């Protein structure tokens, strides 16, 4: 009998799940991806700016996985026939904007946490004497703490405020004092279970990464991330349902019943298994009547809102010799990061073409500061970029503002344990996937979707 599987959520985690389901089950499966928005891709979205394909969401993904092999995102791109379309950034340094000047980011840090304090000259004054060996590991097995709590206790405040906070802010739009070490830096958390100093834990985590020396750290898809989205949708050969939210999820016989669309005219879909690949709040609503313990475990996850400003500057606009810069929260600007896009990505750079700058605005807890109209937000971004970069940028020939309200999960300490509890409380045939549960970043989301698909296949094979 043909199996029917619903994938609720058409972001990259849901699409990766659909591809994996098709690969595992072949044509003996009816797979439907339900996405309440009008387009697939979630936070992967490519737009035109000055005639170039510029990301309006996630810009790139890690090239290597934790064990030194290719990342799950690279593996998916190859599976989809996009291996030859993978591109890598130029070897340009990045900087920190501190006190009105751009200071190179120290080399050899792990998401901003240094393994060698001597490299921090001009960036931060560490409290090296606090990182002493007390005769026991930094963390007990499975223990989780906020990144800021651990680093402050060992290196002092400036290392967190000037280095770790902007690095984490660039990825999560969050603050080190609120973010889980075990979710944001799992290798460091694992090393901290055996090492007695933070310096040794960082070095141990770095040595275990097994990244090939000289290999690119990041990759992207020539033509934009939307190519990855459309290729995944095609390869899944799934039926795609857009624009109708799944309002209810309930048990129906040995399977599941989905209720979609408006209350006066609902649509009903019956399936054998479900992959739930949506943010925490809507996932908790769907789970409330089915698995209240799971709903409670995931429903409290907070999210940060951000906005992106894209500016196409005239050809030849001079910029610092950098790929971009990060801004510590203490600088007080709304801009928290900037990418000199055409300099960073050489396949887009042309002397006759526009100079593209992309700025990220807003951090967790700063939603009120984003409440400006697009024109005012763009003007603010342009003004702050000039001050932070130390150059007078001309007015853009083309521009856009992309808002991502409630887009970036804020993983409080203990998040991994809460997700494990939620998964253990789920009814059989239902799997969770995506950034709400397993972490941000395209490789993590792809791996999460693939794992959820494997879980569902195992369930179906046992029926």
From TrEMBL:
It holds the Pfam family Amino_oxidase. It is an enzyme of class 1 (oxidoreductase). Pathway: Porphyrin-containing compound metabolism; protoheme biosynthesis. Residues 12-454 form the Amine oxidase domain. Coiled coil: none annotated. Its cofactor is FAD. One of its GO terms (cellular component) is cytoplasm. Belongs to the protoporphyrinogen/coproporphyrinogen oxidase family. Coproporphyrinogen III oxidase subfamily. Involved in coproporphyrin-dependent heme b biosynthesis. Catalyzes the oxidation of coproporphyrinogen III to coproporphyrin III. This is Coproporphyrinogen III oxidase.
């Amino acid at each position: 009998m043909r199996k029917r599987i619903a994938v609720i959520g058409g972001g990259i985690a849901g699409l990766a799940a659909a591809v994996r389901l098709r690969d595992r089950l072949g044509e003996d499966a009816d797979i439907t991806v339900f996405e309440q928005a009008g387009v697939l891709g979630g936070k992967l979205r490519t737009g035109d700016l000055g005639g170039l394909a510029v990301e309006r969401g996630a810009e790139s993904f890690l090239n290597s996985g934790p064990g030194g092999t290719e990342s799950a995102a690279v593996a998916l791109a190859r599976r989809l026939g996009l291996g030859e379309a993978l591109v890598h950034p130029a070897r340009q340094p990045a900087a920190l904007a501190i006190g009105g000047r751009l200071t190179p980011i120290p080399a050899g840090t792990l998401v901003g946490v240094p393994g060698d304090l001597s490299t921090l000259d001009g960036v931060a004054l560490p409290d090296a004497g606090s990182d002493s060996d007390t005769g026991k590991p930094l963390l007990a097995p499975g223990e989780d703490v906020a990144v800021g709590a651990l680093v402050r206790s060992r290196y002092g405040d400036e290392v967190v405020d000037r280095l770790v906070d902007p690095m984490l802010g660039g990825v999560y739009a969050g603050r080190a004092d609120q973010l889980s070490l075990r979710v944001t830096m799992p290798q460091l958390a694992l090393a901290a279970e055996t090492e007695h100093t933070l310096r040794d834990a960082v070095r141990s985590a770095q040595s275990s990464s097994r990244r090939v020396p000289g290999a690119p750290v990041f990759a992207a898809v020539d033509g934009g991330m939307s190519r990855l989205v459309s290729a995944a949708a095609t390869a899944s050969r799934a039926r795609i349902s857009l624009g109708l939210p799944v309002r209810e999820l309930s048990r129906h016989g040995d399977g599941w019943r989905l209720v979609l669309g408006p209350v006066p005219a609902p649509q009903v879909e019956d399936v054998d298994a479900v992959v739930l690949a949506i943010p925490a709040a809507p996932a908790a609503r769907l789970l409330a009547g089915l698995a209240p313990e799971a709903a409670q475990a995931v429903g409290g996850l907070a999210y940060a809102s951000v906005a992106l400003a894209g500016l196409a500057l005239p050809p030849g606009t001079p910029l610092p010799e950098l790929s971009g810069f990060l801004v510590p929260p203490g600088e007080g600007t709304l801009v928290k990061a900037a990418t000199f896009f055409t300099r960073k990505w050489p396949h887009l750079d042309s002397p006759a073409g526009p100079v593209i700058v992309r700025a990220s605005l807003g951090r967790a807890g700063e939603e009120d500061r984003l409440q400006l109209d697009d024109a005012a937000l763009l003007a603010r971004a342009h003004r702050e970029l000039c001050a932070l970069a130390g150059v007078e940028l001309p007015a853009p020939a083309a521009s856009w503002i992309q808002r991502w309200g409630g887009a970036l999960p804020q993983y409080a300490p203990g998040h991994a344990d809460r997700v494990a509890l939620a998964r253990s409380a789920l009814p059989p045939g239902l799997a969770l996937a995506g950034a709400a549960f397993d972490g941000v970043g395209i490789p993590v989301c792809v791996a999460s979707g693939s794992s959820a698909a494997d879980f569902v296949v195992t369930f179906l094979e046992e029926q």
